[in-house]
Amino acid sequence: MNAPRHFNPTARWLHWLMAAMIVAMLFIGVAMMASVSARPWLIDLHRPLGITILVLAVVRLRNRLRRPVPALPASLPRWQRAAATASHWLLYGLMLAMPLIGWAMLSAGGFPVQLADGVMLPPIAPRHPALYAVLRAAHGGLAYLLFATVLLHVAAALRHAWVLGDGVFASMARGGRRTPAD
After folding, report:
1. From CA 169, how far away is CA 26, in angstroms rounded?
2. Residue 95: count of CB within 10 angstroms of its CB
C-alpha cells in the first residue's frame, strides 16, 4: 500500500486543535505557579482541559494506528527519520501520561477532579501524601519535557516548511490540496 501524501482530515483537525490546547495548557500551568490570585480559576480551567486532551489523545492515537500516514522524504538522513518517529511517539506518550499523572496526583492528594458543576471524576490513585508528592514532581518534570519536545517539533516543522520545502509541513497543514511545492 502506498503512503498518502497528506494526513487524513481527522488527523489534521485533531493535530491543530490539540496543538492549541497543549500550548494553552503549558501557559496555564506556568500561570498557576506564578499567580496566587488567579490560581483557583486557572486550576478550574486546567483540570477539564487536561481530561479533554486525554480523551482527544486516545481518539488521535486510535486514528493514527488505523490510518496510513505520509512517509518522510527519502532525502532525510536515517537519524532524522528516527528522531522524527521517536519524537512523535514521545508526544503521544506525553499527551496520555500528563493528564493521567495529573489525575492520579489529585486523587493521591484527596482533591476532586471536577469537570463541570456536579461532574466529578472518580479517584484513580489511593489517597497518600508521599504518592501525591512523587506524582506532583513527575507532572512538573514531564511538563518541562513536553515544552521542550513541542519547541523541537515546531522548529522541525518550520525547517521543513521554510528551509527544506519538502512537503512534510504541507502534509499536515494543507491536506488534499496539491501545489507544485508539495
Report:
1. 23
2. 20
Instruction: Give the per-residue pLDDT at 155.
Output: 97
In angstroms, the CA 32 to CA 36 distance is: 7
Question: What pLDDT sits at residue 30?
Answer: 92
Please state the domain extents for the chain.
9-173
DSSP code per residue over 89-111: HHHHHHHHHHHHHHHHHHHHHT-
Give pTM, 2 decimals.
0.91
pLDDT tens across 26-80, in order?
Answer: 999 999 999 999 999 999 999 999 999 999 999 999 999 999 999 999 999 999 9
| Integer Cα distance of 105 and 139 in angstroms | 8
Alpha-carbon distances, residue 23 vs 1, 17, 177 (angstroms)? 35, 10, 27
CB atoms within 10 A of CB 13: 14
- CA 154 – CA 169 distance, rounded (Å): 10
The predicted-structure confidence for 73-122, as pLDDT tens digits, reads as follows 999 999 999 999 999 999 999 999 999 999 999 999 999 898 888 899 99
Contact 7, 173 (CB under 8 A): no
Partners of 116 in beta bridges: 119
Sign of the dihedral defined by the CA atoms of residues 13, 15, 20, 25, in that order: positive
178 φ/ψ angles, rounded to the nearest 5 degrees:
-115, 135
The whole-angstrom separation of Cα 101 and Cα 144 is: 14
